[in-house]
Design a protein that fits this description.
Helices cover 31% and strands 19% of the residues. By secondary structure, it is α+β, with helices and mostly antiparallel strands. Strands 1-2-3 form a three-stranded antiparallel beta sheet. The C terminus is likely disordered.
Amino acid sequence: MSMSSSLISKVHKAKLYSDDPARIQFQDFTVTLRGENDTHTVTFHDGTWNCSCRTFRDEKICAHTMAVERVLNITIPAAARQGEPFSASGVHPSPLL
């Protein structure tokens, strides 16, 4: 079975996009994170973080939201980045303009 040139082109473009994650900016998502004592729900909606844990409720930041941000790295819009200013590679890359 051979791939059509149209599909080959789409696969090539998908690879180019995925090799440059700064092209991707998450707007909304919900994830669960298994913490040491409980499983928490972390959401990101319209540039705002939320977590079901007590720490986030009290302090508006927690290890769970910071962990998700680290995993997603630069795919979080620069204005919504919180927590430590480092990515897995060291420092957050410059945001897209």
